[in-house]
Design a protein that fits this description.
about 220 residues, mainly alpha, two-stranded antiparallel sheet, 9 helices, 2 strands, about 5% strand, globular
């Protein structure tokens, strides 16, 4: 029984590893939109078996990051600008909720971590960052806030939609002239949550989402 449990745990670990690695490549557009997914090549590059990769692709289809067609295979989903409004409709409601929950209920250690993250971000020269570095900062801050909200269902939902928003961000980043201000907005949001300022946390989170949509539409 212990051997079976050990095998299941190892399989789950490999499937999770595959899921996170492939998800990262899709979000950052290292696997470009509409590209055919080669599960054999992915398995080889990740040094794991094809079965965990296939399991990962099933999860990624639920996340709307890949799509499968009978007899054609699996592809990275297109980045459709018309999805921006749909994604923003959800994020403009849920991002302020996560910020409010974090400000209300996160423990002192968690809030201290958000303050430290704000300090670290203040020390970063955003203009000097590569695209990948910039995106990883953005993802890191959002995920820290989602985790601080203390609601795993809210966190899972926001991660999914933030992933889709990040793909859009990556696609149009080179055309954006004020992308540094978008990342810089995170500092004020983190500090508001750290100070347990519920009203300000909600306001800044909402404006951040709306500002992102406006910035993207300005360059489309």
């Amino acid at each position: 029984m212990d051997a079976v449990t050990s095998e299941e745990t190892a399989y789950t670990s490999m499937a999770d590893k595959a899921y996170l690695a492939i998800r990262d490549r899709l979000i950052m557009l290292d696997i470009p939109p509409m590209t055919a997914i080669d599960d054999v090549a992915l398995a080889a590059s990740l040094d794991i078996g094809r079965t965990p990769v296939r399991e990962a692709l099933k999860r990624l289809e639920i996340d709307r990051l890949v799509v499968s067609y009978p007899r054609r295979g699996t592809f990275a989903t297109a980045v459709d600008i018309t999805d921006l409004a749909y994604i923003s409709d959800l994020r403009v409601q849920l991002e302020p909720l996560a910020a409010r929950r974090a400000a209300e209920s996160a423990d002192a250690a968690t809030l201290g971590g958000l303050d430290e993250l704000a300090d670290a971000l203040d020390r970063v020269d955003v203009r000097s960052l590569s695209r990948d570095e910039l995106m990883r900062w953005d993802l890191h801050v959002h995920r820290a806030i989602y985790g601080a909200a203390g609601n795993p269902h809210l966190e899972d939902t926001l991660v999914r939609y933030d992933n889709l928003a990040t793909r859009i961000f990556c696609l149009f980043l080179d055309r954006m002239v004020n992308f540094d201000s978008h990342v810089g907005e995170h500092t004020a949001l983190l500090r508001a949550i750290g100070a347990r300022d519920i009203v300000e946390s909600e306001r800044l989170a909402r404006e951040h989402v709306l500002g992102f949509e406006k910035a993207i539409r300005a360059v489309v």
